[in-house]
Design a protein that fits this description.
By secondary structure, the chain is of the alpha/beta class. It is 46% helix and 21% strand. It has one domain: 3-Layer(aba) Sandwich (Rossmann fold).
Length: 254
């Protein structure tokens, strides 16, 4: 399978779990999106790599007039459509596709949000260029994702466990990498807010359906991490740990 097939199969088979996942269904960042939507009242918003639709629901709650939940996994979009109907969000629409090829006209959206999706994209630079194309002048791009540490040891450790846990993982990017790629795609240098995101090991591997052999390998890797990495990620005896997450906010350079 190629990367897109791997991602769609991986998340298509686990779609329902992401609707109820505590990591994905709640958080101060979602409440912040509700408030942002209430302030901006975007006419057209894009939930890029929507997964189970938590960004779409937050934007709709805030008052966005139209929200497109866009994802490569049809099963994820089925979950979004059913839940949107259950919540009475008629302003939410679904569309299938990859982040690197957006089937929308130039300057379509006032607001684009991607949450915990970009680390699966094979061509992030291409996806950012496409985002810049479909974002209207004066609009905002919000990226919420795991941020890899700048220190090479910590970066290597994080990418290793992420790939073992989820074979569709591409990369968690450093803040410096995000800043360079956004500027390269003709966005302004982003403002960045960071926080610590705790991950409970058992639910972390169960949610994505990590095979038993890889779960065993993950435990070996966590046990073998150097002391500096174990301290940085606050690795617990049960292999639960803490990572960095961030909110990057920017707009197009005129």
């Amino acid at each position: 399978m190629d990367q897109l097939e791997l991602t769609t199969r991986q998340f298509g088979s686990t779609a329902a779990k992401y609707l109820t996942s505590a990591v994905h269904a709640a958080g101060a960042d979602l409440e912040r999106l509700v408030k942002m939507s209430a302030r901006l009242r975007p006419a057209h918003a894009l939930d890029l790599g929507s997964g189970a639709g938590h960004v779409s629901f937050a934007l709709a709650r805030g008052g966005a007039q139209r929200v497109v939940a866009y994802d490569p996994a049809a099963e994820m979009l089925e979950v979004v459509a059913l839940e949107a109907a259950a919540r009475g969000h008629r302003e939410i629409h679904t569309q299938l596709g990859s982040a690197e090829r957006l089937p929308f006209a130039d300057s379509t959206f006032d607001l684009i949000v991607s949450r915990y999706s970009a680390h699966h994209w094979l061509d992030l630079k291409g996806a950012l260029s496409e985002s810049a194309r479909v974002l209207a002048p004066g609009g905002s791009l919000i990226v919420i994702d795991v941020l890899s540490p700048e220190a090479p040891l910590m970066d290597t450790a994080l990418q290793t466990v992420e790939m073992l846990r989820d074979s569709s993982h591409v990369r968690n990017y450093r803040e410096s990498e995000w800043r360079a790629m956004l500027i390269g795609a003709r966005f302004a240098s982003p403002s960045v807010d960071r926080w610590k995101l705790p991950l409970e090991f058992e639910s972390w591997v169960t949610r994505i359906g990590t095979p038993a052999a890889r779960v065993a390998a993950l435990k070996v890797v966590f046990d073998a991490l150097p002391a500096e990495a174990r301290e940085y990620f606050a690795v617990a005896p049960d292999c639960s740990f803490v990572i960095d997450a961030g909110w990057l906010e920017t707009g197009k350079v005129s």
